Amino acid sequence: xxxxNFYAGPSxxxxxxxxxxxxAILNFADTGLSLLEVSHRSKEFTAVIExxxxxxxxxxxxxxxxxxxxxxxxxxxxxxxxxxxILNKKAAYLETGTWAVxxxxxxxxxxxxxxxASSKDANxxxxxxxxxxxxxxxxxxxxxxxxxxGTEVRKDIDSPVPLVADxxxxxxxxxxxxxxxxxxxxxxxxxxxxxxxxxxxxxxSALGKVERAIPTMLDYRTHIKKGSMFNTPPVLPIYSAxxxxxxxxxxxxxxxxxxxxxAKATKLYDAIDSxxxxxxTAAVEDRSIMNVCFVIKPEYAELEKxxxxxxxxxxxxxxxxxxxxxxxxxxIYNALPMESVDALVAAMKEFEAxx
Length: 355
Description:
Blueprint: E1 4-5, H1 15-26, H2 43-59, E2 66-71, H3 74-86, E3 90-95, H4 98-107, E4 112-118, E5 140-143, E6 145-146, E7 151-152, E8 163-166, E9 183-187, E10 198-203, H5 220-225, H6 235-251, H7 254-273, E11 278-280, E12 291-296, H8 304-313, E13 316-317, E14 328-331, H9 338-354
Parallel strand pairs: 1-13, 3-4, 3-5, 5-8, 8-9
Antiparallel strand pairs: 2-10, 6-7, 9-10, 11-12, 12-14
Helix pairs in contact: 1-6, 2-6, 3-4, 7-9
């Protein structure tokens, strides 16, 4: 039976990425060696990391003055690496979910943190509006997509101070005006590659302004200077990332991918909104097109586990909501085909009709 992969991360990858990575694990670049056993400094792998950085610059139309880095530690490492490198006295943060909360906690180790707005009062079911970013902040940080609660900021914010964004779960799902940001970072395991690599897009002029000493590994300048090769980078995820980037280019780039993502999300949200049994949990105007969160209406609450089992019997994996919120979550990242959305909608309708 075909599996429909709705896992939130690590999550679905394109067949193109999986096949090419599998081939390289057996024989990388006709070296007669596995990708898993070659030196990261070999000419064959150096070509991979350089091409991957170049493709990210091309797809996101990154202007001059920025560096693309491949780092370890996940987005969670960036929660401390960002303030370590650019927080002098005060930073401003938007609190929209679990990962924003974690980022705020780390930033407080390095200076004052002004939480300009929060949606905690409604279990992070909306994105705060009309907040004021303090002009004396060293930077303003926000999380573009909230995987657990299914909300998303789908436009580039205008900020009077340097802008930093965690785009872990929606990078490459739309064009981005990179020139508005000083730092963009993203764990790869949603829309790019297997877990183990994090990309950081860093504006060079943002660095070197703090007075504190920065540990070598946590200083962006270390990795810029060494082309992400200061220590051994995660070779396999970077190779997979390159395959995904090539696949995105073949689809026509980010404008085309955004159209496909919006079409998938629209179809699923329409099914939820027209249902007598299911309902969405995020504010309609802030709904994520990457993570669709929904629940069974209270009068059918006892059927929640039964629906998960029913969906599983139809080949669906990963639709159970995050343990902190319950309900259901369908993660419909770039690589998920429309046929998987169609299958989920059909399963919802069949289950509803049955009950």
